[in-house]
């Protein structure tokens, strides 16, 4: 199964292709609930993304719910002790905190993707 993303109006969906059913499935990320959609062609998938997103946003508005899940900015990262020690050393050598090093690494990875 391959994975890709599609964007619409500031929302991102992870797209997976299932060769067994010859169908794409999209799942909109970062929502206060779930919204997915299906299509056999990219054009059909785009149309279904629009329909699914519009329905989700209308439902949220109707019930007074914020559509996007809010991120706190905090998360726990588990590393091997060796990698943790290397990261601490690298942060100290750069004169920054370990949090700043991790933030820099995540930003770099997102830019590269």
Basic shape: elongated
Strand tally:
4
How are strands sequenced across the largest beta sheet?
A: 1-2-3-4
Low-confidence stretches at least 5 residues in length (pLDDT < 50)? none
Taken in chain order, the helices and strands follow as EEEEHHH
Head-to-tail CA distance between termini: 19 Å
From the alpha carbons, calculate the radius of gyration and give it in angstroms: 19 Å
How many H/I helices? 3
Name the average pLDDT.
93
Instruction: List the domain count as a whole number.
Output: 2
Structural class: alpha+beta
> Residue share in helices?
40-55%
Give the amount of beta strand, in percent: 15-25%
How is this fold's topology laid out?
Layout: E1 3-8, E2 11-18, E3 23-28, E4 36-39, H1 42-63, H2 81-94, H3 98-112
Antiparallel strand pairs: 1-2, 2-3, 3-4
Helix pairs in contact: 2-3
Features:
3 helices, 113 residues, four-stranded antiparallel beta sheet, elongated, 21% strand, 45% helix, alpha+beta
Description:
There is one protein chain. The protein is an alpha+beta fold. It folds into 2 domains: 3-63, no CATH class; 81-112. The chain has helices at 42-63, 81-94, 98-112; strands at 3-8, 11-18, 23-28, 36-39. Strands 1-2-3-4 form a 4-stranded antiparallel beta sheet, covered by helices on one side. Helix 2 (81-94) packs across helix 3 (98-112). The longest helix is centred in the middle third of the chain and has 22 residues, at 42-63. It starts with a strand and ends with a helix.
Quick gist of this model?
The protein has 113 residues and is an alpha+beta fold.
């Amino acid at each position: 199964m391959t994975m890709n993303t599609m964007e619409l109006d500031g929302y991102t969906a992870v797209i997976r292709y299932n060769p067994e059913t010859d169908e794409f499935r999209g799942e909109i990320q970062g929502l206060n609930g779930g919204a997915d959609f299906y299509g056999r062609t990219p054009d059909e998938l785009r149309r279904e993304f629009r329909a699914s997103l519009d329905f989700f946003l209308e439902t949220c508005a109707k019930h007074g719910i914020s559509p996007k899940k809010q991120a706190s900015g905090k998360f726990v990262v588990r590393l091997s002790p060796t990698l943790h020690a290397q990261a601490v050393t690298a942060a100290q050598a750069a004169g920054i905190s370990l949090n700043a090093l991790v933030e820099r690494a995540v930003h770099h990875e997102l830019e590269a993707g």
